[in-house]
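re: that complex we talked abt at group meeting.

here r the seqs, copy pasted straight from the sheet so there may be weird spacing, ignore it
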Amino acid sequence: MWACIVLPHLAMDGILRQQPEASGGDAEPLVLVGAAASSKPSTLSTAGAARQVLAVNGPARAAGLFPGQRLVAAQALLARFRTVECTPAMVTGWQELLAAWAYRYSAEVVTFPGAVALEVGRSLGLFGPWPRFEQRLREDLGQLGFRHRLAVAPSARAAWLLAGAGDGGMAPDRTALEQALAKVPVQRARLPEGVAGSLAAMGITRLGQLLALPRASLQSRFGAELSAHLERLLGDRPDPLRHYQPPDRFDAGIELGHESVSSQALLFPLRRLTADLAAFLAGRDGGVQRFTLELLHERAPATPVEVGLQSVQRDPAMLFELARSRLERATVTRPALGLRLLATELPAFIPAARDLFDGRPAHALPIPQLRERLRARLGADAVYQLALTTDPRPECAQALSAQTGGHELPERLPRPTWLLHRPIPLRGPAPRLLAGPERIETGWWDGGDIRRDYYVVETGQGQRAWVFCAPGQHGPWMLHGWFA
Amino acid sequence: MNASTASAASLAPLRGLFERQQVWQGRRAPPGPGAEPTGWPELDAALPQGGWPRAALTEILLPADGVGELRLLLPTLARLTGGGQTVAVVAPPYRPYAPGWCLHGVDLARIEFIHADDRQTLWAMEQCLRSGSCVAVLGWPRAGDSRHLRRLQVAADTGQALAFVFRSDRHAGNPSPAALRLDLLTQPQPALRIRKCRGGQPPSRPMPLPAAWP
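got the structure back, here u go
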């Protein structure tokens, strides 16, 4: 069973979702323009004049603008409207994004022009029953910001056809499909080129009439292509569709439309991009450990901002927060025109396991995520762990990170809990000796050898200090640690 | 007659309100979410809840560094880390020295040391407390007033964690929202004074510290 999602306003939604709601949305007339889609290159008109309207929003449509209009004609009708350049590559990009999103719900995803179809029959066990699954799909699409029409049919092509004819079409089996298809006008049946016109001239307006005709005579009149199309619609003939394969990298960008110097203005596109990245990662069941944000400038190379994570992540809120704090700390010398997010390494994502009997609050942030959050703001080396080493020199008796751990303390000699970065002379009145001496004489193997007598002393203020002096002497004292 | 029937009629719903416990009446505050044993029997006995107040802020005031302020907590840290729970140590004033911590049985693999400058210390502490993944958070904020400490207190409550703040005893006179305030004294002899404790009257005399201190 296939569900097909038709995106009637793919280009317009794709543009609108890149803009914060505050800056207009549907309020002002907005027109997407691009190169004329006609295949005949016109030698007479200049390149500028060949541009035509690709999509319009509500206010623009109310003013009489329509897709396919030439831009000059639109400008004659309406004095002021905002235009946004739209290229076929952008539309393909959004369709790819939706395919990546659909891949989360099904292993078989097919793209049609302006539509995405996914096999849902085998996913029902996981996401079903269908009404709940459908609601989930619609919620996701709403969050992604795409208006859509959805229909279900036994074959992908039939679902595409039904979704094109109306929202919510439901044809779970063959009889229901034939009934549903019967009402579809032949003009909208995605028939081979030219056939629909001839059929209309013959008085055949609905697909039901066409399906009732003998298939053999249709074939002799219109060729094999039409009958093959009808058989694929009904699922009688296998449909050679190219299934979507998720790419191995994520690359998406948003243009601001104006130059911006504050990082605040980048937050909206950043939120969109990280959410898209998270949707993409969830689709391929991957995560990301390192990605690059590029600030795009006019007539200058982009400023890259590397975002590195300690572990593989894919939570959208987390990715946004981390990217945001990196972006705020980045030094950017020029105003930004746009933002691009590039992730080339997409390692497998392993969700953190939680102990069933863990007594911590249920909403607890896992430790790796807490570390990421702290590192993002405080710096990459800000969070560390300590471990013992086997070196007897106080300066080398510990190492950063827990990987080197596992050593036991050799002896239970007094050791302070704070160590000074380098020993300093102990000032004040003569301290009271509590324990010592303990001679540490070692380190000859790497030139950093030491010979010291260590004592535990109490200072006049009542502090316990770890001090040393030259062997056999009683002062001057060098302070090396505190028994805090 | 008229008035008494009116008052009887108005009393009945009032009693209903009491029975349904919809009216707050001044009573003793209910005991808090309990306490964590400190590992020092004398201190446990002196504290009204018998230990560190759970999900709350404890403020420890020091005359100087190195007077045994960590020693006070090391038994607790050893017990918590030994149980596989994570403890965060934010902006320690010196380099933590692993052998000294291990000597008291602390599992260092469970301790996250966080390096933060003066302005970020309180933020980092709040993040750790709020996360709910740290069982205890120790911090040495150089800046901050009672407003900031209140934030930490709220964060400790949110994340159900023990919060410990070490500050100079210069702050002793300032108000503090901490559930427990302790003074570490060194003169004339090492002692611990309970300056404030939630749920009870603080003892009037400082408590002498054990002979094996620190």
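couple things i noticed - The CA atoms of residues 350 and 367 of chain A lie 15 Å apart. Confidence is low (pLDDT under 50) at residues 38-49 of chain A.
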